[in-house]
Design a protein that fits this description.
With 365 residues, the chain is α+β, with helices and mostly antiparallel strands. The protein has helices at residues 3-17, 37-51, 95-108, 119-122, 136-139, 144-148, 177-191, 197-208, 222-227, 257-268, 275-282, 293-298, 350-361, and strands spanning 26-28, 34-36, 55-62, 65-76, 81-82, 89-92, 232-233, 236-237, 253-255, 286-287, 302-303, 308-312, 315-323, 328-334, 339-345. The strands form four sheets. A nine-stranded antiparallel beta sheet has the order 5-4-3-15-14-13-12-11-10, sandwiched between helices. A two-stranded antiparallel ribbon has the order 1-2. The two termini are 39 Å apart.
Amino acid sequence: MNQLKNIAVLLIGLAIFGTATAQKGHIKTVSGKRVNVEDLEKRIEHIMDSIQLPGLSIAIINDAKIAYHNKFGVANLKTKEPVDQNSIFEGASLSKPLFAYFVMKMAEQGNFDLDAPIYDYLKDIFPKDAVAEGSMEAYKTLTPRIVLSHGTGIPNWVKGELITIAFEPGTDFSYSGEAYQHMGAALGTKLGIGWGGKLDTLFLEEVAHPLDMNKSFYTWNDFLKEHIVKGHVKGKVNPESSRFKKVGPGFSLQSDAYDYALFLIEMMEPKNLSVELRDEMLKEHNHFKPDNKIHLETGQTGWGLGFAQKPTPNGLMHLHTGNNKDFQAYAMFVPDQKYGFTIFGNSDNLFPFLTEIEKLIEEQF
C-alpha cells in the first residue's frame, strides 16, 4: 500500500471520526466514582486558562471503551487558530509503547526475534566508531527485549557522542530513546525496507489501520502538513513543524488522544495481537532497584516491554510520559478496571494540567 492510498484510507476514517466528540452525561474514574461531563469540561477549561495551556486532546476510557474525548484550545497562540477534531499533536515518547506493540506484531509473524541481538542486523551498516571501545562487546548482546524494557545501559540520547554502556545489559535500568532508535533501524534492516516511509507504511498496515488509528503516523505526510498543531515553549510559538522523514521509535509519533486511547483499549482487550504476546508486553521485565530514582519519586516499580508499571489500590497501572519540549503527552491504563486516560498537549506545561485534573478525576499518574 503506497502513501497516497494510506491517506485515502485515512480520510475515509476521518469522516467516521468526525462524530466522535465529547459525550454528555458522566464518566467514571478509575475507582468507579461518577463525574459529570459538564463539570469535567468546566474544570478542563479553567485549568487550561489558569496555566495558559494552548491546546489539549484528552480521552477517558471506561469499560474498555472511549467514554469521553474532546479537544480544547488553540493550535497556534499567535494566530489563535482553534484546534479541531482533526488536529494532530506530537506524541513524543508515547511513540515507544506503540512501537513496542509493532515490534510484538512483527515477532508474532516471525519477522523479528525478541531475543536475537540487534547487532546481527546492523553489523553491515553499523558505523565502526559509534560505540566506545570498551562497550562494543556489551552492545553486541543487546536484544529487542532488553531495549523495550530499558535494560541496555545506553544513555537516553548520546547526541553524537560515542555510546558508552553503563552496566551489563539486562541487569539494571537505564531509560534510553537512543536504544529504541537502534532497535528500529535493526527492524527496518531485517525486513529489507529501511527505517523511512516504508517502515511507517508497514506500521499503518499492521497496527494503525487494524486498530482504527487513522490519524497516527511516525513520518511526515500531506495530512500532517494540514492538521499538525504548533508547539509552544514558555508561551511562545515554535514556528517550525517537526517533519520527521525517518521513523523515530522513541519520539516521532504524531497522533491524538482518541487514537492513542484505541491503542490502550487494544492493550486491555487485544484483537489484533495474541493475548500471549500482549501478556508478554505487560509482564515486568525490568524490576527497579530500591534506590532507583523513578521508583523513589513516583512509586513505579519496573518496566514491561513498552510501558512503566506502578501498583495502585485499583490494580497495576501501566503508564508512559512523553516530552518533546514544545509538545508533551501522557497515557495510562489499569486493566483490572478497564480504565484508561490519555492527554496530548502542544506546549511545555502539560504536566501541571495533569496535577490539577487529578483533583477531580482521581490519581492518573
